[in-house]
Write a structure and sequence with these properties.
This protein has about 130 residues and is mainly beta. It has two helices and eight strands; from the N terminus they run ββββααββββ. The strands form two sheets. Strands 1, 4, 5, 6, 7 and 8 form a six-stranded antiparallel beta sheet that branches. Strands 2-3 form a two-stranded antiparallel ribbon.
Amino acid sequence: MGKENALTTQVTYGQDIVEVKQVTQNSALTISKQAGARLSGEITISRSMDRNTAFTDWVKETVANRNLDSARKNVTITVMDSQKTPVRRIMLSNAWASSWSSPSLEAGGSGPATEQVTITYEDVTVE
């Protein structure tokens, strides 16, 4: 993506919480909470349209062609500081484009044409 493109929502992740109920030797009920399975999530990217088709082709695999098996990719989002030095990496596992919104084109508008893509993923790793 170019410098005019921006991530418009934050990446969130978490895990299920499992409640475990047990009865002690004194017949008292105890409830404890434990970590369950990691939750999947989604992000929304808003980007200016350009001539590069790599991103658009990937979106077409699931949104238009409904080919989820070949569309699943591992995606890395790199957050950079003002000097373009990476400060954080967010890796999304088995990510795919789950929805796409076309640009809103207004007669007489002077802004860039922007598309929105929602990316669904199975797991996230933050470095």
